[in-house]
Amino acid sequence: MAGIPDSDLVVFQRVDRMSRRLFGGDECVVDRTLFRVYERSRSDVTLPAVRILTRSIVTMLLLSASLLAQSQTLAGQWQGVLQVGKDLRIVLVITTADGLKATMYSIDQTPQGIPANPITLQGTTLRMSFGGIGARFEGTVSADGNSVTGTFTQGNNPLPMTLARANADTAWKIPEPPKAMAADAKAVFEVATIKPSNPAAQGKLMTIKGRQVLTINTALSDLISFAYGLHLRQVIGGPSWMESDKYDITGQPEGQGMPNVNQMRDMIRALLEDRFKLTTHRDMRELSAYALVVTPGGSKMTKNDNNPNGLPGLLFRGLGVLPATNATMGDFAGVMQLAVLDRPVIDKTGLQGRYDFTLTWTPDETQFASFGVRIPPSTDPNAPPVLFTAVQEQLGLKFDSVRAPIEVLVIDRVERPSEN
């Protein structure tokens, strides 16, 4: 069979040069593929087939060049306003050095960025999703490339939003994250107030606001569970009022800067020992538990590398709706055992770092017992899946039921809190 004519080899060489300009490198995959075809053509590949392959690869390279040029023009800061009763300024920072990437900042709410994953540009249509807050944006890039007009949707609430390209004069300043408390700072409260909660209050909250540590409508059992990182089944003994009496706590740390979650735990533990006179000892018991593992298909969550030392965001938007930002798997396991599930959760994922995601499911009567609510069976045929299905489908994780020796905390002594 005749070899490939010199004219076709010239085309190969042009394809090779184009691919090197587009993608870099001393040796291109396209280059190797074409010349393997050339070698095979001497014996068992027809010349028309080789020419068709060549034209296809040239078309692919030209299309790739067009998409690459389009995405590169998006690099920079974009900003717009969401009207949600009040104006929220939104900043979107797009980079293209390592593929098309974007981070969103709601600068009137938090300095913490929320990465988009995925983000795509098809023609003039820009799409991106923000798993950590259950939101997405889709818009059309203007002909001059200086604005994107579209819709921002969070949950079932679509809102119009136009993003404009910012320059040095018009760019809104992205707030600096608050200074973190030093890792070696003494994690104790300089001042702390403990007050009975409003009896009509619903739900509960433990959070950090600036330097202040706040808990709202929390029982002693909640405080112990959080401070020691345990499920209530791992807390043995204690008086009956431990779950019925609810407290609001406001604490100002002795050290400067914003504490992290572990420092918050240490401060609440010290408060329990000082003001509630809590004394305990550790023991081992065989208990039923859930092991949180990764499914064979792998994680479906969005990695968040923006603020490795920042606080996680894990606040329920309702029973069965959990948006998460900047959360470790330990954070997720802790929230699920503290608020949702009826047994301890052990993180066996092996996943390091922090993630964004939104988990949506239909809870059943065994869940959210610590919230003091009873959940009736759902009759909605379009309701989200149950938790154990949702966590696999949406996160790529799984709760395996296990029974194992688990450390427990035995309460030796505790009193109602001392006066402020």
Which descriptors apply to this entry?
420 residues; alpha+beta; globular; single chain; four-stranded antiparallel sheet; nine-stranded antiparallel sheet; 34% strand
In short:
This protein is an alpha+beta fold and 420 residues long. It has helices at 6-23, 29-41, 47-72, 220-228, 241-244, 261-275, 329-340, 387-395; strands at 76-83, 87-95, 101-106, 114-115, 119-122, 125-130, 135-141, 147-154, 157-165, 189-196, 205-209, 212-219, 235-236, 246-253, 279-294, 302-303, 313-314, 321-327, 345-347, 355-360, 397-413.
Q: Provide the structure class.
A: alpha+beta
Helical content (DSSP H or I, runs of 4+): 25-40%
Q: β content, as a range? A: 25-35%
Strand order across the largest sheet = 4-3-2-1-9-8-7-6-5
